[in-house]
Amino acid sequence: MLEGILEILIKTVVILGIPLGALPIIIHVERRGAGFIQRRLGPNRVGPFGLLQPLADVAKFMFKEEVHPTHVRPFFYSLAPLVALTVALLPLACIPIMAPLEINGRTIYPEVFRSDMGIFYAFAVSALGSYGILLGGWASNNKFSMLGALRACAQMVSYELSLSTSIVAMIFLYGTNDIHLMVAAQTGYWFGFLPKWGFFIQPLAAMLFLVGIFAESNRLPFDLAEGESEIVAGYHLEYSSMKFAIFFMAEYIHMIALSALFIILFFGGYSILPGLDLIPQSPIITPILQMGSLIFKIAFMIWFFVWVRWTLPRFRYDQLMDIGWQRLLPLGIINLIATVLITYFRNQ
């Protein structure tokens, strides 16, 4: 009993510690990446190459005076950032960072929440991300905040459908709900050089899923929930100091979780990167290479988020709805039907 509790605590510390510890790095990459893409310096004064700027920002948020508007609904106003952060952290509980370990004849799974239905749990929880935004917009008792919250919910509903079709198509393709079996199905090579990643089998599903996670995380070009040019700052207009920071911590952690799920379905999850499998494997080396491969893939996805943010303009709201309902959803349904038929006739 005590051993099981200790195991869960260690897993929780690792699973939560890695993304929370990576937040200052991601913020620095976001700001320096913006400077690089816009051909300017970005933060470069605090510490060497501006590396200590994120720590200065954290200190500023922690000690900055908090403005608490009198017209808000106090309890829900304070609760909303915590709901957003909690919901963003929950999917991480079922995301494995390596293959199961065999220690003293006992199989130890790296995820905190082990279930054959873990992939459904992760997506179900990640879909709740807009609830914190909705609660914050409503509790702010401000028309611009409420507009941002309503936009976030409508956007989530619109893109959740096409995203779900790509998930179901991949489950049919792999023939399992188990994340570890999905990763195992993507291990190895075709023709001796092409990784057996889901992306190469289902590029359309990968595209639908990629667009969906941008919309789910409210990142440009889908950040209509906080459109500065239209609704000032949207759902977080009335927030300041640490409450404001918690909302953006939730956004970055949501990006990490959705990136990890995208990689599990389409880029081999924690499977070792091509070339690294030439390194002699051992019970110690293999888990390190698996963790390193997953972290590298997630880091690339985070950079891709930054790259897209400072490259593409924000959609108009009618364009956002048009893309979701008239473009992506029909493509997702067609792709799902084709995948089911191909899988059925292949198994005959």
Kindly describe this structure:
By secondary structure, this protein is mainly α. The protein has one domain (2-346). The chain is 65% helix and 3% strand. It is built from 13 helices and four strands. A hairpin with a 2-residue loop joins β1 and β2 (106-108). α1 crosses α2, α1 crosses α11 (241-266) and α5 (129-139) runs antiparallel to α6 (143-174). The model has no long low-confidence stretch (mean pLDDT 86).
Salient structural properties:
348 residues, two-stranded antiparallel sheet, 13 helices, mainly alpha, 65% helix
- Overall structural domain count: 1
Helix content: 55-70%
Strand and helix order: HHHEEHHHHEEHHHHHH
Report the average pLDDT across residues: 86
Low-confidence stretches: none
Total helical segments = 13
The strands making up the biggest β-sheet line up spatially as 1-2
| Overall 3D shape | globular
Percentage of β-strand residues: under 5%
Query: Biggest sheet: strands, sense, closure?
Result: 2 strands, antiparallel
How many strand segments? 4
Concise overview:
Helices cover 65% and strands 3% of the residues. The chain is mainly alpha-helical and 348 residues long.
